Amino acid sequence: MPMKELDTFRVSYLSILDEDANVDKELEPKLKKPELIELYRQMVWARRTDERMLKLQRQGRIGTFGPSTGQEAAQCAVAFAMKEQDWFAGAFREHGVRLLRGETLTRQLVYYNGQEEGNINEGSANPRNLPISVIVGAQPLHAVGLAYAMRLQGEKETCAVTFMGDGATSEGDFHEAMNFAAVWNLPVLFVVQNNQWAISVPRSKQTKSATIAQKAIAYGMPGVQVDGNDALAVYVAASEALERGRRGEGPTLIEAVTYRLMMHTTADDQYKYRTKEEEELWWRRDPLVRFRAYLEAKKFWSEKDQEALEEEYKVEIEKQVKAFEGMSGWKPDAPFDHVFGTKHERIEAQRREFLAEIAKEADRG
Ligand SMILES: Cc1ncc(C[n+]2csc(CCOP(=O)(O)OP(=O)(O)O)c2C)c(N)n1
To answer: Is residue 274 part of a domain?
Structure first.
């Protein structure tokens, strides 16, 4: 069949700091020492709080929890590139982003203890952080709506950043969001954390595409695959995408190749579907170890600095856990407060029914 070529496409891969902590000098971002240290501190904060939350769950002191260990570079380096006015629409695994954007560990604990109050912005948390979206793939649409609203309101410098897992790319919502963002040329950054697993479904059963980044091509936006355990590569890709958005050049898709080092959630046993050997391979690619080696090679970090940081975080974590455990007076009907901006009779009827039901249960003892 005679054919003419209509277009050519390419998908690029970005890696700057490799597995052995060798840095590509040409691509290395021009971040200053305090900035690099801050990014590292944020990644370690995400890891240590994650570890603590897992222990608290195992001790029965919080409810179900989904660890983010291993994904710190994919999360923190994007958040580090974002500006305060940018919107963040995440799923349930982005503690790194949430903490960097001002949410406290205490608040995370409230959420993972099943209290709606943990979904409400307070204090220093950025009011442009959306609550956790447990509905897989819903939040990309929220980001697109926000970016469109910002345009209508004349905020030209604001981007909307949405995070999701590889599993979310199989949801219709993801594709609708990508399509609308591109058609309307909106400043949206889609960050797919390809952590290889959607609970027990491997990446190979998620999609036949060779990369997730290439899905961007079908919608007419740039797609780049990055080493998601390389904080420098993630930072550079995110910065470029956000600048494109601010220049009015539309959305970008970043596929950050990483790994969920722990169980899906504490309700899961990952050894039912994957091996310890696979995990060990990815532990050797730990983004924290790699970034620390980079800082140490630059003489920006030492063993003494690490010890001081660990001590600082130990104290801070205990303080925040204590603050959480000292809280009381939870409102069981809090979810009904936030369904709409204003009260709605149907929701109020459901609230009454719910309260009557739990009162009955309390009577039954
Ligand atoms: C619409 C919808 N379907 C199914 C689920 C149940 N569920 C929760 S997490 C998850 C897998 C998500 O995988 P992925 O998007 O790759 O994110 P990851 O958990 O790896 O971070 C599923 C199927 C859900 N929460 N929402």
So the answer is: yes
